[in-house]
Amino acid sequence: MNSLSHGFLFIIGLTWLLCEVCLSASGGDWTPLWIYLAGFVVMFAVLGCLPLSTRAIEAAGPIFALIIGAGLLIYGFNAFGASMVGGILRTIGGLAMVALGGLSFIGRKSSAAH
Q: Using N-to-C axis directions, what is the helix angle for 31-44 and 54-79, rounded to 10°?
């Protein structure tokens, strides 16, 4: 996740998922917001605060990107009942985040490079 483009897309995914869970909370379902906040704390503890090796951080980044993408996909599939266009856009965003996580796994340096 050291790439600037991956980091930018990672922040977009986090922001988009936060908007989705806030909309759920405004509708009365607070559980996704609490799950998001717990995941956010764990993610930033692992990626930024804990003294972990670079290899561990580069392994955790794509995992969190896949989790964000899965969350966006869940919201995308649920949105098809209200709006076809909204469901398609959310599904495309979720698939992009899943692809980002997959590409990050492929683009990781080998353990010998560390």
A: 160
Q: How far apart are CA 86 and CA 105, in angstroms?
A: 29
Chain segment 22-76, per-residue pLDDT in tens: 999 999 999 999 999 999 999 888 888 888 888 888 888 888 888 998 999 998 8
Q: Tell me the C-alpha distance between 66 and 63, whole Å.
A: 5
Structural tokens at position 65 = 């990107």
d(CA 103, CA 87): 24
Nearest in space to 37 (alpha carbons), one of 28, 27, 25: 25
Of 33, 97, 114, which is closest to residue 61 (Cα–Cα)? 97
What gap in Å lies between CA 68 and CA 78, rounded to an integer? Answer: 16
- Residue 34's alpha-carbon distances to 54, 104, 112, in angstroms, are 29, 27, 39
| Predicted TM-score of the model (pTM) | 0.82
**CA–CA gap between residue 6 and residue 19 (Å, rounded):** 20
